[in-house]
Amino acid sequence: MGEVMTKCDLLAGIDFGTGGCKITVIDFAGKTVGEASCEYPTHFPHPGWSEQTPADWYGAMCRATAELRAAGLDLHRVAALSFDGSTHNAVLLDGAMRPVRDTIMWTDQRSSAECAELARDHGDAIFSAACQSPAPTWTLPQLIWLRNHEPEYIGRTRHILFVKDYVRYLVTGVAATDCIEAQGTLFFDFRTMTWSQELFALTGFDFAALPELVKPTDRTGSVTAEAAADTGFAAGTPVVCGTSDSAVEDYGAGAVNPGQAIVKLATAGNFNVMTAEAHPHPRTLTYSHVIEGMFYTVSATNAGAVCQRWLRDLFPFGATGKDAYIEMNRLAAESPAGANGVCFHPYLQGERSPYWDPKLRGSFTGLGMNTSRGDCYRALLEGVAFSLRDCRSVIEEMKLPVEELILIGGGSRSELWSRIICDVMDTPLRRAFPGDASFGSALLAGAGIGVYASPAAAVETAAAKGETLTPDPEHAAFYDRAFARYREIHDALAPVYAKEF
Fold first, then answer.
1. pTM of the model
2. Which of the listed residues 9, 13, 206, 282 has the most CB atoms within 10 Å of its CB?
3. Are residues 115 and 237 in the same domain?
4. DSSP secondary-structure letter at 2?
5. How far apart are CA 490 and CA 144, in angstroms?
6. Is 421 domain-assigned?
7. CATH code for the domain of 23
8. E strands of 259-326, at which residues?
9. How far apart are alpha carbons 59 and 457 in whole angstroms?
10. Is the pLDDT of residue 343 over 60?
11. 229: which residues sit within 8 A by CB, 6+ positions away?
12. What's the domain range around 24?
């Protein structure tokens, strides 16, 4: 008898966020049939530095697929898979496609001096071409820092990829990136939608090292036999390029119309507004949307839900992993709004919007002998919510229309945290489930192989849905006053952090 063929009726999205790998497997109607995640470490060799080891990403993916298989999911049913990841992070590879050093991450702040020089000498040219202003988040100043401090890596680098693209290369043997990912480098030209030779020349690296540019829905190879053995996906499974995590998060949550806004509560925090045209601004980030012809404006904080992970790891208290977050939320719920006077600023890696100040640092203020562990946990949740409201203030200054708020990210699964954000924003808030980048990537995989007629059709068929929260008027009024205090503390401490210590 011949071999029975497995029905390919599922799609997989694989997300490489700053904190770990998340895989979501859905059916063609958008129903989640399996999900798994695995953390990987970030290294902080010096204050303000942030690096990851590329091998950890592939290993985390393989552990996540093993978890799915252990739960009984046949990954041979997957008709296609797609990848996404945190952007800005250059993976430097030698001629044999091996990493030559750990990857500098987007949260890294070491290139502040290079950013000052770029702004002074090339600021107008960069903003005109790349629609962004220099900041340590971007790939360009990171590579210039390497040119200035570790020039030996210039000669050793033959190829440059980015997080999701490197892992996808290991899965398919195809090296490429997409245009939205490329917009996160500061050496991509929006006017021509190509790499900028002029801006990249500032790095000293070989222009030929940059990868081919494709669309997020383009097919970029198939799962190799070796990768199939590692992951459990069938050899030959089509692989669709994918794009940045923020792009697929917005897309998968159904934010596909101008005026819809995403409040992201993941490792980082974002306030993203969908627009019909690009609105470059010195204090925001500008990207193309997955839906061609649309854009989104990003006002972003460096540290969102990662603050919980940081506190969990810094002060372990018995519970571990996800159980620790459940216990932290339980204790936080026992503390009243305002955390009995404790205030947290989440500037653990400097800050992006609205301050763009790499020297800012995190703080707990208002501690007293009566302060409980729950007060500190609640203050952390409130501090991240205040930081997101700070991000929203930039959007308000730009006068971009906001008609709906959609909350996404792992932190949105906390009922308490979601309600705090709703009250701090004083705006109805729809929680998108699933609100993960990996879900959006799974939709892109389907659009890439024709399961859906287009990316827009995929959203119409299977976009994330969820409940809508409404703000509590009393809490909203209280948080309005508390937010003013949060800003006053920032204003008082920022000059202190600016001084050399």
1. 0.90
2. 13
3. yes
4. P
5. 30
6. no
7. 3.30.420.40
8. 260-265, 269-275, 285-288, 295-301
9. 33
10. yes
11. none
12. 10-247
Nearest by Cα to 345 from 500, 186, 178, 492: 492
Closest Cα partner for 198 from 120, 240, 140, 119?
140
How far is residue 473 from each of residues 120, 378, 422, 477, 480, measured CA to CA in Å?
A: 46, 19, 11, 6, 11
19 and 104, same domain (yes or no):
yes
In a domain, 254, yes or no: no
pLDDT at 320: 79
Who's near 129: CB < 8 A, 6+ residues apart? 188, 189, 190, 191, 196, 198, 199
One domain, residues 367 and 232:
no
Is the peptide bond preceding residue 434 cis, with omega within 30 degrees of 0? Answer: yes
Residue 470: count of CB within 10 angstroms of its CB: 12
What is the count of structural domains for the chain?
A: 2
Task: Identify the CA nearest to 458 among candidates 2, 13, 6, 3.
Answer: 13
Whole-number Å distance between alpha carbons of 136 and 297: 18
Q: Is the pLDDT of residue 377 over 80?
A: yes
Residues 6+ apart with CB under 8 A from 128: 191
Sign of CA dihedral 137, 140, 144, 149: positive
Phi then psi for residue 122, to 5 deg, are -135, 10
Q: Are residues 191 and 313 in the same domain?
A: no
Residues 332 and 221 reside in one and the same domain: no
User: In three state form, how does the secondary structure of 163-215 look?
Assistant: HHHHHHHHHHCCCEEEHHHHCCCCCEECCCCEECHHHHHHHCCCHHHCCEEEC
pLDDT in tens, 88-122: 999 999 999 999 999 999 999 999 999 999 999 99
> Residue 3: which residues within 8 A CB-CB, separation 6 or more?
none
What is the secondary structure of 132-175 as a DSSP string?
Answer: S---TTSHHHHHHHHHHH-THHHHH--EEEEHHHHHHHHHHS--
Residue type at 432?
A
Three-class secondary structure of residue 325 per DSSP: helix
The residue written with tokens 């001629």 in the block is 95
Residue 378: both structure tokens together: 């609640």
